[in-house]
Design brief:
The structure is a homodimer of 283-residue chains. Chain A is α/β, with parallel strands linked by helices. Chain A folds into two domains: 168 residues, NAD(P)-binding Rossmann-like Domain (Rossmann fold, 3-Layer(aba) Sandwich); 104 residues, 6-phosphogluconate dehydrogenase C-terminal fold, CATH 1.10.3660.10. Chain A has twelve helices and eight strands. In chain A, helix 7 packs across helix 11.
């Protein structure tokens, strides 16, 4: 059993709130303090008993053993140096979907060792405290980056915490993380947003979409419900890798376009058969 | 209660096989005859008791009251005139994902009235008899096209059959169907195939995809497992509408590309907020 700690969760939305539920369930926290700039979210997080108390950031840091930043990635790079300025023995970690920028922001900070960069690969298209999910994170991967730059005790606690809530740990340098995240997460969101915009643009008869939309359509546009506050900063921070993947995606779409335009059935069979190889990877 | 009929299902794969289960469950068939060109599928369909008997097409037609074509759309346009040549009192229907081409193929056929063009909007990314699903079609839409061109008794039986298996009927002319199908189904498959190809092309470390792939990625590439025999002919038969939607999709993806390239955060917020409107349509 791990010693229970006082844990501050900065941002009590989908990820922070779901994490709070798991930290409590797994007996990892003696107390959970929420830091929340949105008063409605703060009220909701208290009502739902996701956190024991809401405090301003500085007060929360001074009484906590662990500070978890679960805010959008633009807020993470603003908050991270401020938080590190105020910690000494505490552990600081974040859950951001990009890692290189955050690490870069504090690379020369004297408190860098207290920071453990992590990205639990779990989420839904919904946000806010009301979107929290029981048993979140279970059986998913968490990427932890640049091990050698963190103090051993801090790294170990975050590692053990994620193990305890059922995740498997993947260690990776920050650039590799951002590259892979562009492939397996960020591009899916862009294609889904763009697909939603395509259909909303072309299909003025909303009733027809509503009546006819199949399970297939729903699964490809599901992510298009995801919120701009979270995703716009991710796309900007991971700009280079995302543009690289997006350009390849445009090439692949144009191969389909060309095969259809030229009524090249053999080429279509080949493109689809290639795509079918995804079966080897995704069950 | 509807009188039970002898029903021939041409193509005992995912759709034909799942339909056979429903026809039996809802007491619509006194006997179900399978017509299946793939001997392994035929064997499997008998073993799984999806059908009572396997017969060649002509023999099946001569002893059946209803013939349901559930084969890829290129095979439908080949078979449909041959089947209509041999029917008199029987009802002929199909389940193809494109409707205009099939109807056009037999528009001057003397037996046109016996044909009821339909598209039950249900499916999965898997195929063959082993992919059949219990309770398939339930609560989904079936599009029925060009009512005035079918004999009333034939139309009514197909209508009542789909109602009985839990579908809601949407009546539409064939061109409208093909247009809407391009928006809410065909484009999703193209983006999913192209996304799979993008990731397979760029991400040579399959282990990384496998370990990191989130639920979001899985939902956007799920359709990429769909088979080429079914989908290549759909893309070709619905070429014009699909190219139209695909071109709009390329425009929308390029709007994201430009906003990211120019680090235009306001534009990204706007594009994502527009996409969020899909919430109004998809629950």
């Amino acid at each position: 059993m791990m010693n229970r700690k006082i844990i501050a969760i900065v941002g009590t939305g989908l990820i922070g709130g779901s994490l709070a539920l798991r930290l409590h369930e797994k007996k990892l926290a003696s107390k959970i303090i929420g830091v929340e700039s949105d008063p409605l979210h703060a009220k909701k997080a208290m009502e739902m008993e996701l956190v024991d108390e809401i405090l301003p950031l500085e007060a929360a840091i001074s009484v906590s053993d662990v500070i978890i930043l679960s805010v959008p990635v633009d807020a993470i790079i603003q908050l991270l140096p401020l938080v590190l300025n105020r910690v000494n023995r505490q552990i600081v970690t974040d859950v951001g979907s990009t890692k290189w920028h955050a690490i870069q922001t504090v690379k020369d900070h004297p408190g860098r060792g207290r920071y453990v960069p992590a990205h639990p690969m779990w989420g839904t298209e919904y946000s806010g405290p009301e979107a929290v999910v029981k048993d979140a994170f279970e059986n998913k991967a968490v990427v932890m980056c640049n091990k050698e730059e963190s103090d051993e005790d801090a790294w170990q606690w975050v590692h053990d915490m994620y193990k305890k809530i059922g995740m498997h740990i993947v260690e990776m340098d920050a650039r590799s993380h951002d590259l892979h995240a562009a492939y397996v997460s960020h591009i899916s969101h862009i294609t889904s947003f763009a697909l939603a915009n395509t259909v909303l643009q072309k299909e003025k008869e909303e009733k027809a979409i509503f009546e006819l939309a199949s399970a297939g359509f729903e699964s490809t546009v599901r992510l298009a419900k995801s919120n701009p506050q979270m995703w716009a900063p991710i796309f900007l921070q991971n700009k280079n890798y995302i543009l690289d993947v997006l350009d390849e995606h445009l090439v692949q779409l144009n191969r389909f376009r060309e095969a259809i335009e030229n009524e090249n059935e053999a080429m279509l069979h080949q493109l689809i058969s290639e795509a079918n190889l995804i079966k080897k990877i995704i069950r």
